[in-house]
Write a structure and sequence with these properties.
By secondary structure, this protein is α/β, with parallel strands linked by helices. The chain contains ten helices and 15 strands.
Amino acid sequence: MTLRSSTPSSSEPSEAHGTARATAGAAGASVPEVLDVAEGVLALGERLVLHHGGCLERARLAWRLEGRRGAPVVAALGGISAHRRVFDVTRPRAGWWDEVVGPARALDALRVRVLGIDYLGGSGESTTPAAGESFPSLSSYDQAETLRRLLDHLQIERLRAIVGASYGGMVGLAFADRYPERVAQLLVISAADRTHPMATAWRSVQRRMLRFAVAIGQGPEGLKLARALAMASYRSPAEFAARFSQPPRRVHEQWVFPVEEYLFARGSDYAARYRPESVLCLSESIDLHAVDARRIGTPTELVAVREDQLVPLDDMRALASRLPRARLHEISSLHGHDAFLKEAEALQPIFTCLYSPSATE
């Protein structure tokens, strides 16, 4: 498969459009398709009033839209580390959801156009806190508002669906609550209508250590530690038992455990790519999330992972009972909360609901 697109090089609000000839195969067959690619940075207006108080002046939202020309649009939103490049056929692993989204994948870019964004407050090209800058608290409703403004700009009257995982599922629920006429369907993975206190406990400790590190000028090191702790909550005890039961080894007069090496390697990699201030902002936004599920009438497919430590199965079942039009799918995965990134095969049959004749554009 080949794909060519142009990317804005300027930090000013801008857009780039491209058309690419792609060849995607299923079971060895080649099917020529045209994928349209467009991306840009949208100026959101003079003032964005925020859900928890305060406002942002001249905020900007970076976005990317890619898929079959003229196809219905599906917004794909992930965790706080996700970004606008949902998939990338030319650069393996450049897209944050490459295993699940793309041509002939579960979310099939040959059948829909996939819309991705850089979250407000995140580490991408949207408006974000600068080092040492005071930045207002953000809500999942604020992210929903920026998405609504983007749809207006792109002249997309109604999304076929929002497919949201983790924080992206929270944003999807907030969007359907506030703008039900703008989305036909939700597919929400590992996200509930409010956060569990145990998950908030883990994230609160992460934020406290990160704030302390930033205050003493060691932000990247603090982010490394916070991410290491976060990784322990993303995965399952069964996975760690299977992968890290080997004995520790002696390094520089102290014992180092296999799981310790893994966690801090992941933390180092993360700290090299993300900003402490952005992680603080969006981590807090997760724990501030709360919607009234009873008001959300959009047809919703929910996916719960039985081994998820952050969004317990009981919370997903409770959400399904409160939503007027919901169906719950339960899957098992050693990857726990990260199952949405890893379990393409398990998610494939669930995603078929996006293409059923009853799905409206």
